[in-house]
Amino acid sequence: MKRLLMLSTAAVIGTAMAAPGDLWAEPVRGGTLQVGLADDPPELDPHLTSSNASRTVLHNIFATLVEVDDELQIQPELAERWEVSEEGTEYTFYLREGVTFHDGTALDAEAVAFNFARMMDRDFGSARAGELAFVEEVTVDGPLQVTVRLSQPFGAFLPAMASWSGMMVSPAAVEEHGADFGQVLVGAGPFRFVERIRDDRVVLDRFDDYFKDGLPYLDQVIYRPFVDAESRIVNLETGSIHIINTVPGRAVSRVQDNPDIELSIVGGLGFRGIWVNTQSEELGTPERRAAVSACIDRRVVVDTVFGEAAVPAVGPFSPATWVVDSPDEAPHRDLDLSREMLEAAGVPDGFSFPLLITPDDESIRVASIYAAMCSEVGIDIQLQQVEFGTILSRMGEANYAAAQIELSPRNDPDLSAHPWFHTDGGVNFSHYSSEEMDRLLDEARAAVDQDERRALYREALEVFNTDFPYIFTYHLQEMKAFRTDLQGYRHIPDSMMRFEDVWLAE
User: Fold this and answer.
1) Which residue, among 143, 137, 142, 46, has the nearest Cα to 91 in the 3D structure?
2) From which residue to which does the signal peptide run (predicted)?
3) Could you give the CA distance from residue 342 to residue 350 in angstroms, rounded to a whole number?
4) Least enclosed by CB within 10 Å: which of 203, 230, 319, 456?
């Protein structure tokens, strides 16, 4: 009988994730897992990329200093334990003994220090630099002991170490390959990189010397991009692929009704909407951006395209976090306010701007709804279909006015806001600068008490909905659909697919 796994972010229901032995049979070794991605990963160096499609691949190549469990609680990984000073400014990590990279070199304290230096090197231009802005010093205290000293407390430091910033690359491979490291990808995760053919596949093989005894079970993992949502679903239905990383809203009921497919749903952490270049001529004033936001009926977008697979958004923090209590907080459509903002912007009859979108059905449907809604007040949105990687490059270069793409949800509110919307954020694609927003995000980042952090992020929501550096419209529920012969899959709300303890039933 088919199972629909409905999980919450705060707590996993029943024993579905806590006791896999009760739910699944004895693991089977061997086999090749076929994975369907919504986009082709544009960059695979973990210290450079900001793509969700990339990170879900990289979690299986690169081990992290710490990891998160099904409830987003920090757990040991490369570091078997750690100590935090009373002031919250020193983290001492004690590494596992005998861990090696895929090239056979040791993953020790020197390697960890090398990774921090690489990410913090301004000339390297790491997208992780913003997350590590408070790191003052990294010292090697012993072969397996390393201390990271911060200039101030950072509430999201350990969550960052469970994500991109905690992914350890081989120093020897970096030194050998330099700027071409992204073509070889040597980590210490359960699978080693074999090849990548753009727009076709990424191939990983089992790493026999993985530091977790007996894992992984699979021999190989092959990722294949299916930009077209219908093609992705059809390949899952026919068994050509075993799991897909995103489920189109319109396909939810279709997947639920298929006895050979399981649908797992948890509260989503990511945000969706319209990226805006705040320095562009078309959307360079808050009044123009506010006019666009007020035109959009977030509830109609959700109901029309996604149904129960999404909720309306008020900011970057979803109702699955401890910042926002309910999707009811999302603003309502207000055409009178939109016209008022157009008047204030000096364009009472409206204006036009190009919106870059990926050429998939769901993106086109959502963007078309935006365009129809905005046309009622004279705002002309010109849809331009562009490949995902190209959009990402243009956003980084500030060579765009507006864009609609999915980027990676993170496991702490700081990581969903500071890198993207702080003046010095590592991935400030909005090219946005606000002293008030910087102050709030910095204070929230330095706070340790969750209630204090929540209050600061609630203040930040007011700035988000005044300046509109991004037009937040909805949060997708985090959904994975997979064939029933895929066993042992642990669904973690950060949306990453981890395959170290997954197997294929015979």
Assistant:
1) 137
2) 1-18
3) 6
4) 230
Tell me the C-alpha distance between 302 and 268, whole Å: 14
pLDDT value for 227: 86
Rg over CA atoms, the chain: 22
* 3 state SS of 298: helix
Whole-Å CA distances, 268 to 9, 95, 216, 278: 8, 31, 27, 27
* pLDDT on residue 24: 55
Q: Are 82 and 92 in contact (CB under 8 A)?
A: yes
How do 470-476 and 272-276 pair as beta strands? antiparallel
CA distances (Å), 473 to each of 151, 370, 502, in order?
Answer: 36, 10, 34
**What confidence tens digit (pLDDT) does each residue in 359-386 have?**
888 899 999 999 999 999 999 999 999 9
> Is the distance from CB of 356 to CB of 400 less than 8 angstroms?
yes
Q: For residue 393, give every residue at least 6 positions away whose Cβ sits within 8 Å of its Cβ, in sequence order, or none.
A: 42
Give 1's pLDDT tier (boundaries 50, 70, 90): very low
- With both helix axes pointing from N to C terminus, report the angle between 335-344 and 286-295 in degrees, rounded to the nearest 10: 160
> What is the average pLDDT value for the chain, to the nearest integer?
91
Helices and strands per DSSP (H, E), number in the chain: 15, 22
Backbone angles phi, psi at 276, to 5 degrees: -125, 140
User: What residues are paired with 479 via a beta bridge?
Assistant: 265
Contact 345, 287 (CB under 8 A): yes
Please, what's the b/e burial string for 434-470 (b: 16 or more CB within 10 A of its CB; e: otherwise)? beebbebbbbbbbbeeeeebbbbbbbbbebbbebbbb
Q: What is the mean pLDDT of residues 452-479?
A: 94
Alpha carbon distance 166, 185 (integer Å): 15
- Distance from C-alpha of 337 to C-alpha of 206, rounded to nearest angstrom: 57
Q: Which H or E run contains 235?
A: helix 229-238
* Contacts of residue 45, Cβ cutoff 8 Å, sequence gap at least 6: 169, 181, 182, 185
Q: 326 vs 108, which has greater pLDDT? A: 108
What is the average pLDDT across 222-248? 94
pLDDT of residue 360: 85
Give the CA count within 13 Å in the CB-facing half-sphere of 384: 14
- The rounded distance, in Å, linking the Cα atoms of 41 and 241 is 17
473 φ, ψ (degrees, to nearest 5): -120, -35
pLDDT digits (tens, 9 = 90+) for 257-280: 999 999 998 888 889 999 999 999
Contact 65, 132 (CB under 8 A): no
